[in-house]
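To: structure subgroup
Subject: Chain for Friday's discussion

All,

I'm putting the inputs and outputs inline so they're searchable in the archive.
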Amino acid sequence: MSLADYLAKNYLTADSKPEKKSKKRKTKDGAQSGLIIADDDASGWVTKSLDGDDNDGPLHVGSATAEFRKTKKNTWQTIGAPAPSSADQAAADAIIASAAAESSVHNAADEDDAPVVDDTARTMESGAHAGLQSADQVIAQLKRKQEEEHKRLLAQGAGNGGQGKETIYRDASGRIINIAMKRAEARKKAEEEVLAVAQALEAQKGDVQRADRERRNAELKEAKFMTVTRYADDIDMNEELKEKERWNDPATKFLTKKKGGKSVSGKPLYGGSFMPNRYGIRPGHRWDGVDRGNGFEKEWFGARNRRKDLMELEYAWQMDE
């Protein structure tokens, strides 16, 4: 079957009409009917004859073509996508088609160039497969392991990851060290050291110094409720001045109120006479009255008295002149 007959049979589906009898022309049996198209330049429509002698002969088209020309009904069918309505739409479709073609070619090239990863091989801890392989394959395996690890961390979330967790410390034998307990022990040890230093400093001080410090603290507390001014008839001030003992006070023997026989620390004091000292400390009740010093206190008081006498003499001489 020729190409023209095939097209006429499958696509030129016009209704056939009964032939009218012609008085002038009669159809003879064996005569060739239809339209004869002779075109030397037609390409794709010429069919080779069976004997292969006449390749440039005319093309015979069946009588169905004449019947198709007589019909008025459009029997053409649209195959494929419809034609674009405008030139801009056609240009846009052409650009989209070219971009899709380039993308497909690029993806195909990447798939061809990508190294083949064998999932059945033994995988090491780093993510690479064991055995002989190329550098590109190793890089691809490591990259895939990193991507899987990153996805796993994202799935777990930041709260379940390693962020914000305390570091685990171990000793030489591998046992876990309790950091909270160690920190508590170190804090307690530091506090004990500070307390020991404070106690050592406190032990260096005497009972009188501690008593004076307590007395000053009590005075500061009482000063909150005291008036701004203090006059000569202030009872507290007068009692405080009377309680002070001066070794060179001539009116001490006229005082009817005697000081108690206990020291500031609560221990009993010596009731007899004793050599005065620069600190005003009285001896204890167990003292036997023997001065076992090197005489420095006596010399200290003598030098102080001589300096005071000289100052008084110089002042008197200046006034006489």
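Points worth raising on Friday:
Helices lie at 3-10, 64-70, 87-113, 135-156, 179-204, 207-223, 235-243, 296-320.
The CA atoms of residues 112 and 152 lie 29 Å apart.

D.
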